[in-house]
Amino acid sequence: MRPMPTLDPILPLPVDDDALRTALADCELAPLLAAVAHLTGDQSLLRDDLRPAPGGFMQPATLTPEQQAAVIDVAFTALTQWRAAGMPPAPPTSEADLVRLMEFAIGETPDRMYLGLLEEELEPGGVDLRAPQWHRRELAADRNFTVAIIGAGMSGLLTAHRLQQAGVDFVILEKNDDVGGTWWENTYPGCRVDVPNHLYSYSFAQRADWQFRFTPQTLLIDYFREVADHFGLREHTRFGTEVASAVYDETTDQWQLALRTSDGQAETLVADALVSAVGQLNRPRFPDIEGRDSFAGPSFHSARWDHSVPLAGKRVAVIGTAASAVQLMPHVSDAAHELLIFQRSPNWISTNPAYTQPLPDGLRWMATHVPGYLQWYRFTLFWGLTEGGLPACRVDPNWDGDGRSVSEINDLLRQFSTAGIEAHLAERPDLLAVAIPPYPPMAKRMLIDDGRWWETLKADTTTLVTDHIARITATGIVTADAAGTEVEHAVDVIIYATGFTASDFLLPMAVTGVGGVDLHEWWADNPRAYLGVTIPHFPKLFCLYGPNTNIVANGSIIFFSECGARYAVDCIRLLLETGTSRLDLREDVLDAFSAIVDEGNANMAWGASDAKSWYKNRTGKVTQNWPFNLVEYWERTKQVDAADYSLT
Ligand SMILES: Cc1cc2nc3c(=O)[nH]c(=O)nc-3n(C[C@H](O)[C@H](O)[C@H](O)COP(=O)(O)OP(=O)(O)OC[C@H]3O[C@@H](n4cnc5c(N)ncnc54)[C@H](O)[C@@H]3O)c2cc1C
Questions:
Q1: Residue from 158, 175, 182, 301 to probe ligand 1 pocket by mutation (most atoms less than 8 Å from CB)
Q2: What are the residues whose beta carbons fall under 8 Å from the beta carbon of 210, sequence distance 6 or more?
Q3: pTM for the full model?
């Protein structure tokens, strides 16, 4: 077997032809022949008459039933012959052959600039091409250099793994008692990803046996725990340790961290470089509503679910109707006597009945038993999302959508999504009147639901309240309509599904850089970082999932953090290689970069629309999102350019 970038071992193909046939019938066909041709080295399997149509690489429907049967036959014969030959490792693949395999899998020829990116994602031969290509012992064997990583979520674990590969010492400081960040904290019922898990997983730790296409939190947390154990990252982690402040000491060129442990102890820690992997969505946001503290019953935030509060027989209010709310509401409705939903504005929601369904057994079987099938399957998903939904987000300056769409394609999406909502709410004109968003699709993230949200909304035990919340009292929520007429809604429990303080990057930590400059004062409500990672006057501070690295319509945040971590680790290479102790970004580099990103965001639905969203900070600036495609970020973060920095 060739090495595979998987957490679980790939098992031998069993001598069970029925099982193989059954599995083949279940799996995605476009990646199948590419995987089998790659494994066997037989490029003649890539028959023109079985080639998927461009853009149809994940839809067997673009192949006729006869073509589908032929693909399965060809794969079956090739795999049984490969098994009979003793399951040899895949032969070396030339670049030209690799390109042919890619073209076959996606049904089109990728632009040359994509090839390197796609090759990395494919990891042919199981080689982790994103791993640092250097080791500290070759660059600075005698130099003590320790990196402090704040946060043991997805980004922190990833950076730790990369530093470990490069032989650089590190310590992870984590305020929680376990790894996983988002996926440890959000235990609300119904919590799951909305990006397919074959992509929402590390390129170097893929999982062959995902049970779901969109994994629930209860299983996803196991993945991050397993990664931490597999790579030995726990022993480098100090749990229950919050970083309260970080100060750059100019005399030693080190970061001095003030720590607070969960048992109330204060400590300091010194590090040569600092990685902030504190997440964009880590600090719950509560709405600023008068009387919020006066409510006498139980209340909690979706990200701090209080499992000790029984909902059975209760009138439960949920404030908010965005991503977490749509996921948790059907479960609250099942448990509670009555559900009152308080909506500020409706969301665009696409219904996918398969969203919560398990993956077909055959697809899991193929990924587990046929070396490389997993990587080719992931690769086709990845290709589909390099651009993903971006074309529907871009503003056409010549389009007059009356604030409800930003381009022709965006308007088509609007019409399609509107028809979907109308179909769900046809018998409830009262709900329909308040369920269609007045803003363009993609001004906020398009939510996914399996249909249960609409059923919940229509249930006899649900009340949708769209009037403005005037205040909260000891016994309920008071709303006021446009004329100022107030209604008190008595409730037993209040659940805040009101999101996070996303644009308050790094808060509540106090971060002080060169010359005593305070990071949040320097930002002055305009959080910016070069590539989302580095900030002038804050040498050797590297942010992951930092400003403008969130994506709305094209892919997984894990890809972004993998790129950001590669860049941060490359900066550390530069420091070790040049024997320098301070690496400080030039301000003009950040200014030029920010101008490009700001202009990009202004030309996207989320920037152009007036709709309020967590993508914007309190001044209305888009501080969260990356407005371009994946290859653009990958290209920019592949390697640090020393000329962008002052190195001393
Ligand atoms: C409900 C929900 C669903 C999501 N779904 C998706 C999805 O489908 N696809 C997708 O791509 N993204 C999704 N996201 C975004 C998600 O946050 C990222 O994908 C990813 O988990 C971010 O990882 P991270 O490590 O950067 O941050 P986090 O997961 O937020 O981890 C940050 C860690 O830092 C720790 N920390 C913070 N401050 C300090 C401090 N001062 N001292 C010590 N420790 C500290 C925290 O305790 C936490 O463990 C979702 C987010 C939420 C909340």
A1: 182
A2: 197, 198, 201, 359, 364
A3: 0.96
